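Hello Y.,

Per our agreement to keep a running log of every chain we model this quarter, I'm adding this entry. I've kept the format consistent with earlier entries: sequence first, then predicted structure.
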Amino acid sequence: MKIFPSFRRWIKANRDGLDAITLDIDGTLANGKNLLSGAADLLARLRADEIPFILLTNDGSNSPAQKVRDLRRYGLRINRDEIVSASHPLDEFAAERKLVGKKVFVMGSLGQPSYAQMAGMTPVTDIAQLTRCHAVIIGEKRYDWQNNINAVINFLAANPQKPLVVPNPDAYFLNARKQMRLAPGALTRLIKESLKDRSIEIETVFLGKPHPRIFRHSHAVLEKRLGRAIPKKRVMMIGDSLASDVAGAKSFGYSVSLVLTGVTTRQMLSESKVKPDLVFKGL
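Predicted structure for the entry above:
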């Protein structure tokens, strides 16, 4: 595929074909604690040209307020209502399963305040309370993986009808030094495969990219902001991941641009069956 140098140049000449932009954050706008080249200029251009945009992240462990503080610290001017997290669809999930007011066990963190709490559920992190919970949600950040995973595996083995909810389906992420760090998707595979070895099948509910719940949520946010329906084909997703950004957005009906600033290398792109509409070296 042809690789263009800059998305900012492209959007300047192609603005009329789009109603809105959806942007990934980590690997697209920022890498670890560093803002990527062109990120601030791109958002400034979108604002100046009055192109609505949403920042769509699989980071389900930082509340919008926390994410805004981080991005502003890095030099990016963002408002809370411009961020949609993989944990935002928890409110839809809680309503569907009648879990409002019910206890759910959270492995790790779901932000401060907790997305589970904002969705009306009662999050607990104490393993001693696990048996009284109605679902398990895999969060992120630092926690005692070994004791949590062992407790959750045994809880789900005894209660396979209770769902395992995964806001962030990513198996890994890259830190500022381009080193891999395990993410909730990898832990989900470990739990599911361990139970499968004992012929126990559990329900897994994925919320984030590439799954449709997060795209439905963010698209509704965009339509509410514009006050009208937005054809999906007139929304472009910009991200760095073939597995989450490109595959998820294409499946949802968006057009997709890949930037080679994060997890996807040129070799991965050439070998993948999942292809974006456009490819850029950077923003």
